[in-house]
Records
---
Amino acid sequence: MSLEATALSYLSANEESLSELAKDIWDHPELGLHEYRSSRLIADELEKAGFSVEMGVARMPTAFVASWGEGGAIIGILGEYDALPGLSQQVSAAREPVEDGFPGHGCGHNLLGVASLGAALAAKEALERDGIRGTIRYYGCPAEETLVGKIFMAKAGLFDDLDAVIAWHPGYVNSVQGRVSTLAMNSFKVNFRGVAAHAGAAPHAGRSALDGVLLMDVGVNYLREHVIPEARIHGVITDGGKAPNIVPAYAQVWYYLRAPRRGQVDDIYARMLDIAEGAALMTGTTHDVEFLTGCYELLPNDVIGGLMLERMKQVGGPGFTDQDRDFAKQLQRTLPQRAAEIEGVLKITHTEVTRKDLGDPLCEKIIEPRLEQGVMPYSTDVGDVSHVAPTGSLSTCCHALGIPLHSWQYVASTGSGIGFKAMMLAARTMGLTMLDLIMKPDVLKAARDEFVEKTGGKQYVSPLPGGAAPH
């Protein structure tokens, strides 16, 4: 039996147990940095299979690294398992929380971590059977939703010795990342501190921290005209004082700053810090900056992406049933409109892809990736990993056409047969790709050469300040 046949046979034999594990994590959703049960479930499976596991890496209790093998190429695969707040939902086409206000897997990370687990175990099974040298490294990455896990793991150097990285994310199309990047980002809070006073009797004795926040926001709004059009600055006032008759001694504003390139974020961020200083000077207050996290844009690797696409075509579609299609249609009927989402899918895959190719209600074909350069309007901490080692990423159809991420409809999908079948397509594709990267040194070298060319040979520098701690 060939290596690929062994890997595929392993995944077929363990499809039910992997689906049960994904459902178990779905049944017990945990927020970022609190995924104690979910991370342990996956780590236990890796330990049982002979991987050595180190828990609590990069100062995060729910982060871990599991390794198997020695010598040869070192191939990493990324796993996630954090849920989203307030999205508790049953597997139902009506809004029915399991428990009001509780988390739910509205981004499919219950599938993400388990598909990567299946791929790692399948590749290990094939290599071990034939006594082939190679190293598989599974990364248990917490708190992706708040862009924390991989950022701190990258800063700790945990990806530095990898030859290549495999990643995926639940989506609508069955395809690879292609040449589509994401936005680099900084998340930071600015705390202003002033002097409290009676707002009616002695406002002159006070120094308003809220005035500092408001003037900073005015300055940021004027800045928008003078930054690149692709940049995005969004913020909220998290604390503006306690009562109108008290001059606020403390106030806080929280910003997300995004741009297509890390250097662009750095430049705009420096200008925002100047605005904060100016606002403090104008109001006679003091201020400090609380840097929460920052990430790089995604750097897709064409060589690894092409390899993944070949393997996905070989594996074939997710194999949805009539029951899956019926459930998908029921979920679609709960949406107010779907046209905008459909058009969005078309734009990020390939301009020549038709709606017929995409499928409705579910994508059942393998879709060619977009050949043009593009940027998705969100950020991911996979971006930092992709600036440390050559990284390829894919998506599979985990929901009905038109359903938005971070919705209760998405939660219902990721706990159903739709999600589990899509998860297995991802596992099969990634498992075979890992074997290819270990067995084909020429392909691995081409991926590295592309990486060096795209990075200009520059070493990754973490956007996190020296003393930053996971939030």
---
Amino acid sequence: MIHWVKIGSGRLALSHRPRMRAIPHLKQAGCDRLVTILCEKEGAAEIGKAVELGGLSWTWIPLESGRPPEGKKSAMVIKELQELSKELEEGTSVLIHCSAGMHRTGMVAYALLRRIGYTQEESLKKIKQMRSETYHALKENHLHWAEKAINCE
């Protein structure tokens, strides 16, 4: 079940990896853009094809694990956060997922919310509203990376 939370003019939700047969139904569930945080060997390209066939927009953030990204990977994630924040401001409904919808999803969602202007407390509260499993999986290193990332733009 998708729990949408209003963010700016848009909406944000968090999830585990959607089943391939569920992807065509995401648009009916109110999703405009699916953000996939998986590496290539986890089947990200297959998800991307299904998303496009389903009439959705797709963003791929290729991270291999829940460890905070470094160097060029970190810069790539920050660039995507800028784009996603614009999408939310424009009224887009964005669904973010990784494999289990916990570490990578939480880290990116927290950084996105902080970049948009929510406080640390507000960001964590919104993540908990969207998906409690993601909220409980967030670790200090995820939050630290996000804080550093939004201050280094």
---
Amino acid sequence: MWPAVGLAFFLLVAWLLSDYAKTIDWDGVGRALAGYSALTLVAAAGLAALSHLTYASYDLLGRAYAGHDLPARQVLGVGLVSYAFNLNLGSLVGGFGFRMRLYHRLGLRAAPIGHVIVLSLVTNWSGWLLLAGTAFAARQVPLPDSFALTALGLQALGVAMLTIPLGYIALCYRSRRRGWLWRGYAFRLPSGPMGLAQVALSSFNWLLIGTLVWLLMPRELGYGTVVATQLSAAMLAVPTHIPGGLGVIEAIFVASLGSAAAQSEMIAALLAYRAVYYLLPLAFAAVLYFSLEAAGRARRRSAESLV
């Protein structure tokens, strides 16, 4: 039943997006894209590369947490591949599927792979909670007229969100109970410094993403507003299960900031963002994936020759 419901929802979203696309001034979008300077695009590519490398370093924390001894270059390679495919094909394919396959091919057992994946998930969303909670509490997010939550309600939500990453750091430092069991899965609480590093690293990565989007946006949009809107859009796109939140992120930006800047320029900025942050890293990750597969095959042949 659920696959049919998911397919129906996807088709509905696709129909709404195709209908919405008819209202866009595509000539204006083309002019805005052509207006980007080479310096701006190079800076955007640099931010994208740094962000992907930062996300891949979550797996270095995972290596320390799980206690495996794969070389750092291979760990970063797996992180880069999984993140690029995660963005473009969804978390089940990238965040889980590619990590499971590549780490298994490189010799890791299921338990440490699971520890790496869980730590990466906690790392990613802990930083999001810290930044989004701060943005909501500071009333940095512009609310559409149709939004059900009031500004005060959103501020209260932001304060509540902030308690989660801060409480997590305090728990990592202070809790005497280090082992937890949830639905049969044993979870060991990271050390205090590692918990702090998780939140700091993830916050840095989300700021890199927001800065990249702001760099491409019309100049009349403030930095804090763009970053806060990007953080909101990233979470609101998750329940749709559409890879990369395609169309959803664009709709949220237009609904929130459509009165503050030209719609065609915002669409152009988000298209440029997708090209630089999603598509170019995917091409690189495809090449890197086959390199890691080759390393896995070489490792197995070496192990078989010793038997």
